[in-house]
Amino acid sequence: MTPGETTARTTPAGHAERLTDQQVEQAVRMLSMLAEPTRLRLLWALRDDELGVTALAEAAGCTPTAASQHLSKLRLVGLVQQRADGRARLYRLSGGHVLRLVAEALAQAEHTVAGLPHHG
């Protein structure tokens, strides 16, 4: 190793231990999107399949206009993806990381609300 060179330590999952400013900023943007009830419900509704705005609005208990506005925000931060199916727009989660993030947040909430012990 040359002077000034450092080795990057990694976590067990293989991610760099030292976070970049860009990683932190993006994570904060994504997590802030989860801090809104309708958006969290929309993401949970997408856990198994892609859905259109009308079905998502029904699942989240909001109007299609409100669902569309929330989905636009979720798309901007990369939590959902959209594809055209004729005139309809279908939405899906942007991958397994998003699903696990939402599922873990809701599992943590369930443990807290129900007074269940937390996993190690």
TrEMBL record:
Pfam families: HTH_20. One of its GO terms (molecular function) is DNA binding. PROSITE patterns: HTH_ARSR_2. It comes from the Bacteria. InterPro entries: ArsR-like_HTH, HTH_ArsR_DNA-bd_dom, Metal_resp_trans_reg, WH-like_DNA-bd_sf, WH_DNA-bd_sf. Residues 19-113 form the HTH arsR-type domain. SMART domains: HTH_ARSR (SM00418). Keywords: DNA-binding, Transcription, Transcription regulation. PANTHER family: ARSENICAL RESISTANCE OPERON REPRESSOR ARSR-RELATED, HTH-TYPE TRANSCRIPTIONAL REGULATOR KMTR. This is HTH-type transcriptional regulator KmtR. It comes from Nocardia aurantia.
